[in-house]
Design a protein that fits this description.
The complex is a heterodimer. Chain A is about 50% helix and about 10% strand. Chain A is α/β, with parallel strands linked by helices. Chain A has 23 helices and 10 strands. Chain A is globular, with a radius of gyration of 26 Å. In chain A, α17 packs antiparallel against α18, α17 crosses α20 and α18 crosses α20. Chain B is built from 8 helices and 12 strands. A 6-stranded parallel β-sheet of chain B has the order 1-12-7-4-2-3, with helices on both faces. A 4-stranded mixed β-sheet of chain B has the order 8-5-6-9. Chain B has a two-stranded antiparallel sheet with strand order 10-11. The chains are: A alpha/beta, B alpha/beta. Chains A and B meet through α2, α3, α4, α8 and α10 of A and α1, α2, α6, α7 and β9 of B.
């Protein structure tokens, strides 16, 4: 039996992981960054009781908001509309892009300044705009670097975490006209500031994400350190915000605990530099701010997660990234290996709803189930339970009761299923068990010497010459 | 059926049971620090300073002195002020020699490039502040628009120290934000910054490089 049993046939993910694992420089970048972020977070929660209480409160707010999601979305829409903000609904990424494109065409827009938004990555906004001849440019320093390099973010909070300052210095010198090579971080940031200031002043539209949408007041809240989010939502004449439908909370007072959990868990800051709350477009007499504000509410598979009580917890996420910062798998393979917009543990549980299990099920297996992510999650998402559930969904027989998601059964392997079925038969019937173990111990010399991945660096497994049962008999 | 109906329809098809209303108020009440004003000022100051903000103690009489002095030391050429604000008028009345005062008195659309290219600094009021996190609360207005606290490289903020709340939750509650939320409300907790290059902290990413708070003590 020299054939290697391939339990999870998706090789793309494994290939990508292998590439990173063989790149010591990149592994060092990730390890260093993860150690840094873990340490920073730890410093923010010296009081374990306070942390426990705040997490419980945060989880309750998120569960409460999700349980009332349809009502809250309607309330949000009503109040935003009353405030003069136009609300759009999109079932898919394509629909969301089409809505944005329509708005852009109406204003003859040629350039769009983008604040950091993972949902815009999720819908591949930049591509859709480029295809229509519109320049959508990133303005968050990390996103700007990643876009300049023609890459995608490798982390949801720190997009350019995989790059060293030497790589960024070389990139700037190569791509920005008139810039000499410098590794001085302050100088690099000054360069980015100068380039982007010009572009902010000229952009036709600003695009942003949303961290929290408050239903009772019709308010969009944005969290950031750089000020580019404020630029995008204040300087251009039109502001388009795009968000997943799960980001809504009912009351303004639900925001402070979530905001505190978000910044402390994400980057270990007690607060970010800016907290930007937008409730209206520019009002008569006001001298700046956009004349039009739009909100695009995106489903893109979220209603599938919502429909299942266990999987609904996935939508509690406030996108802090603490789960990836503490994940032993993410720390080793980095964000790009996942091949999805959202990497790490949260990516493994949220991506199947957006892309289908067929494209994403190997991610559910890319976990040791150590539970570090569950321990640090500020809103207490039971990530490991959900990973196990997704593994079962991936192996389920299509059409069976256990297959409830798009792409369920995509990871099913008939050989493996047959082996487990036989195993369960043997271990649940005494007679069969005794007979099997008797044959195994007597026929042990027939065991294969090649046992797939096991024998790559270990001696082959062999059944014992005598069963426990036989040994006990001899003792008497 | 449109996207809206489809999405809401799918959500409504699931009967989700809501847990009881989260006890946000009681959590904050049980974690409230019983601090007097001087303790809140001290906490605000230390949080602001740890986020790289310059803080000065001033009075309603001498704050312009401080501002002009700092502006001279930093070599600022001009200062953007609001239209018809009491503090703007106070500064104008002094006719500072080496600091040109520029009023934000017409819509941005006609002078965007000048704001981005020529303005060194600005002065705005903070309506209040948060001791816990060292945050200034600004509600930009017709008199002091949104970009004043964002585009100029140096941002001066005048804060009456009697308006310092313990935390964000008490600020929202005490000021009744629910009923009066403006077009744009802001918390500002330091100068603009980023750590996007190899986790190295750098100030002045896109917004002000320097944030200077003039704490105004009355009596």
């Amino acid at each position: 039996m020299s054939q290697v049993i391939s339990i999870h046939p998706d090789t793309d993910f494994k290939d990508r992981s292998r590439t990173v694992l063989n790149n010591p420089g990149q592994r060092k970048n990730f390890r260093g960054a993860m150690d840094f972020l873990q340490e920073k977070r730890r410093g923010q929660f010296p009081d374990q009781d306070e942390l426990a209480g705040l997490r419980e409160l945060g989880a309750t707010i998120r569960r409460y908001s999700l349980a009332r999601l349809p009502q809250l979305l309607e309330q949000l829409e009503k109040n935003l509309t009353a405030n003069g903000i136009q609300v759009h609904w999109a079932e898919t990424a394509d629909e969301a892009n089409a809505i944005a494109l329509n708005i852009a065409r109406k204003h003859n827009a040629r350039s769009i300044a983008k604040g950091k938004s993972m949902v815009s990555e999720e819908i591949e906004f930049n591509h859709a705009m480029a295809a229509a001849g519109i320049d959508a440019f990133e303005t968050d320093m990390g996103e700007y670097i990643v876009q300049l390099a023609g890459e995608k973010p490798s982390h949801i909070i720190m997009p350019a975490i995989h790059k060293t300052k030497q790589e960024i210095a070389a990139l700037f010198a190569e791509k920005i006209p008139g810039i000499a090579y410098t590794e001085d971080v302050d100088a690099l940031i000054r360069i980015g500031r100068q380039v982007l200031r010009r572009k902010f002043a000229e952009a036709d539209i600003g695009l942003s994400g949303v961290n929290f949408a408050v239903a009772e007041t019709g308010t969009l809240c944005l969290v950031e350190n750089e000020g580019n989010g404020r630029m995008c939502t204040t300087v251009p004449k039109v502001h388009i915000a795009v968000t997943g439908i799960e980001k809504v909370v009912e009351k303004l007072e639900h925001v402070p605990p979530l905001y505190s959990l978000l910044t402390r868990s994400a980057t270990g800051q007690s607060i970010t530099t800016y907290f930007n709350m937008i409730s209206r477009p520019r009002q008569p007499g006001e001298k700046d701010g956009p004349d039009e504000v739009h909100l695009i509410l995106l489903d893109n598979g979220r209603t599938q997660a919502f429909a299942d009580e266990q999987l609904r917890a996935t939508l509690q996420c406030i996108r802090c990234g603490a789960c990836m910062n503490h994940c032993p798998v993410y720390a080793r393979i980095g964000g790009h290996a996942y091949g999805t917009t959202y990497p790490g543990p949260i990516g493994a549980i949220v991506s199947p709803h957006m892309l289908g299990l067929n494209a994403t099920y190997p991610l559910a297996f890319a976990s040791t189930l150590c539970g570090a992510c569950v321990e640090v999650c500020p809103v207490k998402i039971p990530i490991t339970d959900i990973l196990i559930r997704l593994r079962n969904e991936a192996q389920a027989r299509p059409g069976s009761a256990k297959a409830s998601l798009r792409g369920s059964g995509a990871g099913r392997n008939n050989l493996v299923s047959a082996i487990w079925k036989a195993w369960s038969l043997v271990y649940s019937r005494l007679g069969v068990y005794r007979l099997t173990s008797w044959f195994m111990s007597r026929g042990r010399d027939l065991s294969p010497t090649e046992q797939g991945a096991w024998t790559r660096c270990r001696t082959p497994l062999k059944p014992a010459p005598k069963r426990l049962r036989d040994l006990l008999k001899e003792k008497k | 059926m449109n996207a809206r109906d489809n999405i809401l329809g799918r959500l409504r098809a699931t009967a989700a049971v809501a847990p009881p209303l989260p006890g946000v108020g009681s959590w904050y009440a049980s974690h409230h620090r019983n601090e007097d004003l001087s303790q809140r000022i001290a906490r605000l100051r230390s949080a602001l300073e740890s986020s790289h903000t310059e803080v000065h103690d001033t009075t309603p009489v001498d704050w312009p002195e401080f501002l002009l002095d700092i502006a001279a030391k930093k070599g600022l050429r001009n200062l953007l002020i609001g239209e018809g604000t009491p503090h703007g008028v106070t500064l104008e009345a002094r006719h500072p020699e080496n600091l040109q005062l520029i009023r934000y008195d017409h819509p941005i659309d006609s002078w965007r490039d000048r704001l981005f290219d020529e303005i060194d600094a600005s002065l705005t009021l903070a309506r209040s502040a948060i001791a816990e996190t060292g945050s200034l609360i600004l509600w930009p207005s017709i008199a002091e628009p949104r970009l004043m606290s964002l585009v100029p490289h140096v941002h001066f903020v005048l804060l009456d120290v009697s308006n310092i709340h313990a935390d964000l939750h008490s600020a929202m509650r005490a000021e009744n934000w629910k009923e009066s939320i403006p077009t744009n409300a802001l918390l500002i907790s330091g100068p603009s910054k980023t750590a996007d290059i190899q986790q190295t902290l750098a100030y002045g990413a896109h917004g002000p490089r320097e944030l200077i708070v003039l704490l105004c003590h009355r009596g």
